[in-house]
Amino acid sequence: MRGILMIKMSRCFLWCCLGVSSQVAMAQAQTPVLKKIAAGGHLVLAHRESSIPFSYLNGDKKPVGYALDLCLKIAEAVRKKTSMPNMVVDYLQVTPANRIDMVAQGTADLECGSTTNNAERRQKVAFTIPHFITGARLLVRSDSPITLLEGLEGKRLVSTKGTTPLKAAIQANRERMLRIQILEASDHEKAVEMVEKGEADAFVMDDVLLYGLAASRPNPAGLKVVGKFLTTEPLAIMLPKGDPDFKALVDEEMRHLIYSGEARTIYNKWFMQPIPPKNTSLSMPMSYLLKDFWKYPSDQVPL
C-alpha cells in the first residue's frame, strides 16, 4: 500500500514539475519585444471594443481612446530606442476574458485598455504606471429605486466576464448573504443592454466605464450611476512579464508623459472634451487620487 502511495506521489510531483517547466520554457521561448522590433517585427497593441473612453471602436470601427493614445506615445519611444522609424503598429481586439492570456502568451505587446493591476494578474503579466484610478459602482435604469448594492437583494446583477468587479460582486454577495443572482455578460455593451431591456436590475463595473457607456447609448438619460465604491481599481497598461528592458522603456516613457504634462493633456482630451461616437463629453476632471499618485509615479500598487 505504501509503495502504491509513493508511486502516486511521485507521479504527482512529476506532473507538477512538467507544468512548471513548460511554463518556464514558454516564457523563455518568447522573443524580447525590443529585440523583435529591432529585427523588423511589428509592435502589437491590444485594444477593447467598448471600454469608453479608454479603448473602443469609433463610428468607423477604428480603435481609439485614452489608453490607446498613451500606447501610441510608447510606440514612438520604442521606434527611437530600436532605431526603427518605420516600425509597424498592429492592432488586436481582445475581450475581458482573453486579454491577459494574449499578453502572457506574447500575442500582444501592450494591452491598451482599462485593466486593473492586482496581485493575481501580476503572476502572469506586468503592468506599468497606472493611468487611471477608479472604483466599481452600479449602473441602473433612471426609474430604478436601487441606490446601493443591498438594494439588489433577491434581484439580478450583471457584470462582464473576467473582470475584478465581477469577482468583488460575487464575494460581497456571499459575505453579506444578499441572495443576488449574479449574471455574466460577454462584454460591457451586452451588460448595458441587459439593464436597458430589464434582463438585469444593475450592472456593476468601474464607474468611469459606466459613465462612458451610458453617454454612448441611444437614450443616455435612461440610465444613471449609483452606489458607493465596491472596489478601488488602479488601471494600467499590461505588458509581458519577464522582459525587463521593454518594461524599463515603457515605465520611463510613462514617467516622461506624466512629468511633461502630456499625460494630463491626453487625459483632458478624452475626459473633458467631446469624444466619438456621439461627440459628447464625460466632464470628469482628474481625481485627487490620480493627481496624488502621479506626484511620485510608480508601478507599485497596494493590490
Please outline what is shown here.
This protein has 303 residues and is of the alpha/beta class.
Structural commentary:
With 303 residues, the chain is α/β, with parallel strands linked by helices. The protein folds into 2 domains: 163 residues, D-Maltodextrin-Binding Protein, domain 2; 96 residues, Periplasmic binding protein-like II (D-Maltodextrin-Binding Protein, domain 2). Helix content is 41%, strand content 18%. α3 crosses α9. The chain is globular, with a radius of gyration of 21 Å.
N-to-C series of helices and strands = HHEEEEHEHEHEEEEHEHEHEEEHHH
User: What is the number of helical segments per DSSP (H or I, 4+ residues)?
Assistant: 11
Proper CATH architecture of the largest domain: 3-Layer(aba) Sandwich
The CATH superfamily title of the largest domain: Periplasmic binding protein-like II
Rg calc: 21 Å
Number of domains: 2
Largest sheet, order of strands side by side? 11-10-12-9-13
Into which percent range does the helicity of residues fall? 40-55%
Distance between the first and last residues' Cα = 46 Å
Strand tally, please? 15
- How does the overall form come out from the CA principal axes? globular
Uncertain spans: 1-28
CATH class of the largest domain: Alpha Beta
Structural class: alpha/beta
Q: How large a portion of the residues is in β-strands, by DSSP E?
A: 15-25%
Mean pLDDT comes to: 89
CATH topology of the largest domain: D-Maltodextrin-Binding Protein, domain 2
What about the largest sheet?
Answer: 5 strands, mixed
Family: Belongs to the bacterial solute-binding protein 3 family.
Domain Ionotropic glutamate receptor C-terminal: 47-273
InterPro entries: Bact_solute-bind_prot3, Iontro_rcpt_C, Solute-binding_3/MltF_N
Keywords: Signal, Transport
